[in-house]
Amino acid sequence: MPHALWPPAVIRRLDDRQATTDPTFYSIEPINHGLLLNIVAPSVLDVAYLSTLALQAAGDSIAIGSLSALPPIGGFAKPDGECNWEQPAMAEAYDPGNIFAKILRGEIPSHRVYEDDAVVAFMDVMPQGIGHTLVVPKAPSRNMLDADPATLGPLFGAVQKVAVAVKKAFKADGVTLMQFNEPASGQTVYHLHVHVVPRFEGVPLKPHSGQMEKPEVLAENAGKIRAALEN
User: Which helix (H) or strand (E) holds 132?
Assistant: First the structure.
């Protein structure tokens, strides 16, 4: 982490130690996948505590006058206060109550078109185009960012099968694949999934307006995709 990101009233370079009054210094040095804290004057600080810190910094030296100025374990400094430390942002946890998890468990009905040991595909109830299908891994993850890499091969193998089938079923000119990760990307359901949408020349995607398709239309389209998968 660049020196400028640390609170300036707390930190001094080792070569500026004369400007402080009896601080305790330690330097930060990269070692393998972690950091070594080299205690220069440990009289004020708990050395055992320091040895457990995993500071996100390297190549700088820090002067701290008291234990209260230290970050929490795994913490880092943000530059809006003298000793204002915060924990690193943690990824959101997977919520097993999400709607796709409930569909996978059979708690909510769906129009399924494909299933294997790893993946389920079913019709999007608010389609952006005819034949809009969702391909969802059974393994839990919020999205691509926290998914087990072993999940991705079976998932995208199924995506390809479904893409070929929807193109054939609806005599489409092409297929759009969409996959979103976290709110800024447009994700609204926090279980990894891929949208498979047949496309036709000159026909734009419909917006996700909240308008649900009629169940009989979804059932008919699902039947067409299943037939295409079987042939």
Answer: none
Cα-based torsion angle of the residue sequence 219, 222, 227, 231 in order, rounded to the nearest 10 degrees: 180
Q: Which of 111, 132, 191, 193 is catalytic?
A: 193
* Residue with tokens 């609806």, as numbered in its chain: 170
Report the distance separating Cα 75 and Cα 56, nearest Å.
Answer: 8
Closest to 191 in 3D by CA, of 151, 132, 222, 231: 151
Chain segment 163-202, per-residue pLDDT in tens = 999 999 999 999 999 999 999 999 999 999 999 999 999 9
Going by C-alpha positions, the residue among 110, 198, 105, 122 that lies closest to residue 158 is 122
pLDDT digits (tens, 9 = 90+) for 9-50: 333 333 333 333 334 443 433 333 333 333 333 333 333 333
DSSP 3-state of 109: coil
Residue type, 96: P
Q: What pLDDT, on the 0 to 100 scale, is given for residue 113?
A: 98
- Looking at residue 35, its amino acid is L
| Residue the block writes with tokens 């067409």 | 224
pLDDT at position 89: 52
> Rounded to whole angstroms, how far apart are CA atoms 231 and 54?
56
Domain ranges of the chain: 3-86, 99-230
Q: Where would I find the H helices in the chain?
A: 47-51, 99-104, 149-169, 215-230
Considering the domain 99-230, what is its CATH architecture? Answer: 2-Layer Sandwich (3.30)
195 is catalytic: no
